Amino acid sequence: MTDYQTARVSLGVRLRELRGEAGLSGRELAARLDWQPSKVSKLEHGRQTASVEDLRSWARVCGRPQAAEGLLAQLRSLETHYASWRRQLAGGHGPRQRSYSPLDARTRHFRIFEAACVPGLLQTRDYATYMFRRGVRRHRTPDDGNEAVRARMERQGILDLPGKTFHILLWEPALRIRLGPDTVMVEQLSRVVTEIARARAEIGVIPMGVSMDVVPSHGFWVFDDDRVLVETIGAELCLTEDVAIAPYVRMFEELSRSALRGPAAIRLVEAVRRDLGGGAQASPDRK
């Protein structure tokens, strides 16, 4: 069970305790709140996340309005592990990029795996611009593209800081998926080649045709050995328990064994770049 699910189940247990202390059945509570009985069950069993208003209403109907603050504290703890993009990006992508600064500053060892795109630390300005445009459309958030790109470029400065190591793995599809016009993609792949050669980070590229014992289903970032960030379609998951982190560390080690590095990695990236360089495909953003 992940940190997030553990926290949600714990909150559900407390809700059930309050209802029991009030002498209410689930159906009675639902009726007083004008909810479907299934909502009460889902909240109590950790299958649905309560809103702030849900918790205040629950405490009030149970005759314990003072218990709301404790419930809200549990909700805030839960939200440290699961944060929807809509909420995180309410102020735009720029502030969100800068919010990583404290974590970046204290992390000494970064392990990054991306399956579908080039990670932000290696992105060109134009590639990042198209990435943020997609985020604005998908999550319907403020369009602060210039600020967001500037913040991402500034974040890349951590690659030059002493005392930090970076191990980055790219699955070949991350290089081939056209997330911008071919000219942007070719420039981005040239940047990847440059970074492999510069060796500021150890960059490995995993060929699509290689045999693997693991399934690289999604990207993830491991910060030292105490935190993993996973981006889903709707939210960012933050995992901090050892039992949740360990599988990602093992996954990274397995994927790393399949990666090409140095000249072999450069040859693969250049082959992809040549494939793209001959095309004239329009940007998906301009269709």
Poorly predicted regions are 279-287
**What's the structural domain tally?**
2
Specify Rg, calculated over alpha carbons: 23 Å
Mean pLDDT: 89
What's the total helix number? 14
N/C terminus separation: 42 Å
The class by helix and strand makeup works out as: alpha/beta
Q: Look up the CATH topology of the largest domain.
A: Endonuclease, Chain A
Order of helices and strands: HHHHHEHHHEHHEHHEEEEHH
Describe the global form.
Answer: elongated
Based on the coordinates given, report the CATH architecture of the largest domain: 2-Layer Sandwich
* Widest beta sheet: strand line-up: 1-7-6-5-2-3-4
* CATH class membership of the largest domain: Alpha Beta
Total number of strands: 7
Please estimate the helix content. 40-55%
Strand residue content = 5-15%
